Amino acid sequence: MKRKLNKVICPCCKGVLNINDCNILGKSYNNLHRKNLFQKTWPKIIFRGACDYCIQQNRALIAKPFIQNYNSEWDLPHLMFWDKTTNCQKCKIEFVFSKEEQQFWYEKLKFIIYSFPKYCLNCRKERRAKISQNNRLMELLNQEYLNDKQLMREIAEIYSKIGNDQKHKFFLRKIEKLNVTDKIM
Length: 185
Ligand SMILES: [Zn+2]
Ligand SMILES: [Zn+2]
Prior knowledge:
The protein has helices at 23-34, 52-56, 99-108, 121-141, 149-161, 165-184, and strands at residues 7-9, 16-18, 60-62, 80-82, 84-87, 94-97. By secondary structure, it is mainly alpha-helical. The radius of gyration is 26 Å and the shape is elongated. The structure holds zinc ion (2 copies). One zinc ion binds next to helix 2. Residues 88, 90-91, 93, 119-120, 122-123 line the site of one zinc ion.
């Protein structure tokens, strides 16, 4: 049983289009039926996608819904990807979740289809850097020769990089103390 889409608003050019003018979207939609992937629970007009012209202009990419990760019958797979904007939860700046990133995110990394990046690229980079600094810190703290000044200097530096001023100063003071004892001895 094929369901018919009526009107489609192209998210790229904002044009209101008849489904008959969106051959590529129609094809993707029918493919879901053909492959028996269409869920009865999905509402009738759910799928959004770009018009043929915008796809030809490379404003949208054709998705492969059958390789996406949707485990509930309420999740609607992506038929197409186009650039989407959202605000970063950390710095609040608006950022673009590009169509290429979405393709990579949902079809290569197989992230669940309703997941969406919370942070902009800069904040994501910053978070990754913090995590790797933290891992390095754990590595260092697990070493037994904690008295070594070189080691403490590295720890102090990492704390400074991840913005923990208190710990940064704490380790600097420790190094100072060691310098003093060095002089006395
Ligand atoms: Zn369009
Ligand atoms: Zn941000």
